[in-house]
């Protein structure tokens, strides 16, 4: 019997669960903590870097969805 690598299974499930609105809420939370002065300086930089990564993920998500919408509109125009 071959055992499956559970980490690869959890990564695929994690990818399916990604949620734009949840990422935006996380970004807003980070901004609130930074602006509220709740973090040590080192943590500010760490949280800022995390927020930038979330923004990149959101931008990529929106770019992909825009491409899908453009394709759908193009197929409607062709009919």
Automatic annotation (TrEMBL):
Output the superkingdom of the source species. Answer: Bacteria
Name-wise, this protein is Exodeoxyribonuclease 7 small subunit
Q: Where is the signal peptide?
A: none
Q: Where in the cell is it found?
A: Cytoplasm
- Subunit record text: Heterooligomer composed of large and small subunits.
General function of this protein: Bidirectionally degrades single-stranded DNA into large acid-insoluble oligonucleotides, which are then degraded further into small acid-soluble oligonucleotides.
Sample GO molecular function, one term = exodeoxyribonuclease VII activity
Per its record, the protein catalyses: Exonucleolytic cleavage in either 5'- to 3'- or 3'- to 5'-direction to yield nucleoside 5'-phosphates
**EC no.?**
3.1.11.6
Report keywords, A-Z.
Answer: Cytoplasm, Exonuclease, Hydrolase, Nuclease
GO CC entries? cytoplasm; exodeoxyribonuclease VII complex
Q: Report any one BP term from Gene Ontology.
A: DNA catabolic process
Please give the Pfam families that the UniProt record associates with this protein.
Answer: Exonuc_VII_S (PF02609)
Similarity section: Belongs to the XseB family.
In terms of InterPro entries, this protein maps to:
Exonuc_VII_S, Exonuc_VII_ssu_sf
